[in-house]
Design brief:
The chain has one domain. The protein contains twelve helices and no strands. Helix 1 crosses helix 12, helix 3 packs parallel to helix 7 and helix 8 crosses helix 12. The protein is globular. The relative contact order is 0.19. About 5% of the residues have low confidence.
Length: about 280
């Protein structure tokens, strides 16, 4: 089905987002964090960094049991109904107008970012000891956020098949590079073909989860853990933990928002279906 003028505008917005690399907010955050990063490198040894990176890898590699994820489809459906979007199940939301789905998706941003900030501030009080505990909690919030945004556009993200998309969103959030965005959008294209054809989405690469996603946990760890080392600084740790977690949750929300908009647009064009009112 052909896209409307507004949907074509959103497509151009996504293309511009893909080309721009790291957004100005990320660059500003990186600049502001430079003194903290330096102090953290002095306070924390290589053992702390290695343990934190291992925690990131473990958190991502243990996505083998989707039932442990904290998202429930009914939560999204209830919020959709509160906004006047009637749907019996998550896939039915695909047939609503894109601007309505955008509003629904955005409604999950702040609650998860604030939850991440509170969690980061609490664990930041424990310095280096609690960084390892903080990382899995942060990713649990991120998993929930990505699933909620995916569901807002009518795409359930509950099974093992969702892992490549989830990791792609995290990689974009952690790095913000145009290369990460391009790779994620290629994954989106594969998913759109599967959904449009009524076939199960299995990701671009075959094999076990650990094999097909071996490089992404390392990349995400490299980009995220350096910032979280600021939690090792006495007194400042709570503020740094809250700030980094809030930033990462917002970056995760924005990445998921753009990627699932792209998925919806690709699905509409390939399936020949659209809004039913």
């Amino acid at each position: 089905m052909r896209l409307s003028a507004e949907e074509k505008r959103v497509r151009r917005e996504i293309e511009a987002w893909q080309r721009e690399g790291a957004p100005w907010a990320t660059c500003a955050f990186d600049w502001a964090m430079q003194p903290v990063d330096w102090a953290a490198q002095q306070a924390a040894g290589p053992e702390v960094l290695a343990r934190a990176e291992e925690a990131v890898g473990d958190s991502l590699a243990r996505l083998s049991d989707a039932s442990k994820w904290t998202y429930e489809p009914e939560d999204v459906l209830e919020k959709a109904r509160s906004q006047g979007l009637e749907a019996d199940d998550v896939p039915a939301l695909r047939h609503r107008a894109l601007d309505e789905l955008d509003e629904l998706a955005r409604s999950f941003f702040n609650q998860n970012a604030l939850l991440a900030a509170l969690e980061g501030g609490s664990t930041g009080l424990g310095g280096a000891v609690l960084i390892v505990a903080d990382v899995p909690l942060l990713f649990t919030i991120g998993f929930r956020l990505i699933q909620q945004i995916g569901a807002a556009y009518g795409f359930p993200m509950r099974g093992p098949e969702a892992r490549p998309l989830v990791l792609s969103a995290f990689n974009v959030a952690a790095s913000g590079t145009s290369a990460a965005k391009a790779d994620a959008l290629r994954e989106i294209s594969v998913a759109a073909s599967s959904f449009a054809g009524g076939q199960p989405y299995r990701g671009r690469v075959s094999g076990t989860f650990e094999r097909q996603n071996r490089h992404l946990p390392r990349e995400i760890a490299k980009n995220l853990v350096g910032r979280k080392l600021g939690q090792t600084i006495p007194v400042a740790g709570a503020a740094v933990g809250a700030g980094v977690n809030y930033w990462f949750a917002r970056q995760t929300a924005q990445a998921a928002f753009m990627l699932f908009r792209a998925l919806w647009l690709d699905w509409k064009e390939r399936s020949g279906q659209g809004a039913r009112g």
